[in-house]
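Re: weekly structure request thread

Next one in the queue (89 aa):
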Amino acid sequence: MVVQDLRRGKGHIVAVHLKETEPGIFREVPYGQGHVDFDACIAETARQGVRIFTSEFWFSPDSDWDTEIGKARAFLHRKLERAFAGELR
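Done, posted below.
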């Protein structure tokens, strides 16, 4: 499990790369549509004192990229706000 791996890295993690995936698919998966447990991962790393988070976005010229980035930002921002407000344990 990812959270167990994060616990093993306690004291050595300085930043977290947030990325959505599905089994066998690691590119172009919209946030919230994959299998990543962002709540658990962000809560664990926040408890460890991590304060630097980055995310990954894929550009698709045939999409409304500006809207998609806005949705992704809102999704991740909600998760981060909840974790740092202590709502996620």
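The two ends are 16 Å apart (CA to CA). The beta strands are 16-18, 53-55.
Next request, please.
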